[in-house]
Amino acid sequence: MVLAALKTQQEFEEFVKPLKLSVLHFYAEWAPQCEQMNEAMQELSKLPEFRDVQFAKILAEEVPEISLRHKVTAVPTFILIVQNKEVDRVDGANTGNLKKKITQCLQDVREPLVSVHALPESSKADLETRLKKLINAAPVMLFMKGSSFEPRCKFSRAIVDILNSYNASYNTFDILNNEEVRQGLKEFSNWPTYPQLYINGELIGGLDIVKELQQSGELESMLPKKLSLEERLKGLINKAPVMIFMKGNPGQPKCGFSRTLMEIMRGTGVSFETFDILEDEEVRQGLKEFSKWPTYPQLYVKGELIGGLDIIKELKDSGELMDALKG
């Protein structure tokens, strides 16, 4: 699939109009990491699970109004948009995080609205297959108005509050974005209202049922929990063979130590991923204690802490850095 190249504000506005997920790379020709991420986007666009996603690149400095609107202050920056509304973003060259964000956003993006009653039998069968996939898309699926971050009715907000009170791990589907699913699921599950909560593909019920389960003490044991901080930290330090926890990102380091480390790493030619600890205070404080290392940046190889900037400088000066990065 060809990566669309947008050059004007009008082209941008037309590109992001459809009810589908658009991924825009705000880039600069002078930044080598932008070229690398253009290649990464090209590969992502070929993945079958992203066949309904449209990808494009746009020179940030050529469309200042758009860049200002989406608060693009550094490159590369990736803005995820549905119907001209920003739904998520990724700052910096982080392919893994970009792929994760695209996957998360896709659950709220569906095809154009269609009346289920007007569908031929073959289409109804296709819809039933799709509904089965949706209710099994995660161990716990909540079909609601809006999202867990922005519920759009008091019933949806109430059920989200209940699930969050148990630190539950769940995915959501916004039925306001798809009339076909909204009407089809009512008939499929013989349940006329929303929200609807499913666990392991089975309908649990709506808000009243969930409240009853909460009051009886049964609900908590039914819900899988989000990862603990320790589990999350272990996942993060093992996310890539070489992981760097820093202030800012490779394109825009936000402290002198992080900037110096980026310069050293670029000189090695070794591939690495980064995590901006300024965007997650829980990770920032938790990792200090987890690894018994009080400062940033921190560099990990295959899940093992190598050290901070001083250690990396020592390894570089002694000629041992490349071996250390290979683990």
TrEMBL record:
- Gene Ontology cellular-component annotations: cytosol; nucleus
- What biological-process GO terms show up in the record? intracellular iron ion homeostasis
Q: Which residues form the Thioredoxin domain?
A: 1-107
List the Gene3D superfamilies hit by this protein, alphabetically: Glutaredoxin
Arranged from A to Z, the UniProt key words for this protein are: Iron, Iron-sulfur, Metal-binding
Q: Which InterPro entries does this chain map to?
A: Glutaredoxin, GRX_PICOT-like, Monothiol_GRX-rel, Thioredoxin-like_sf, Thioredoxin_domain
Task: From the Swiss-Prot or TrEMBL record, give the protein name.
Answer: Glutaredoxin-3
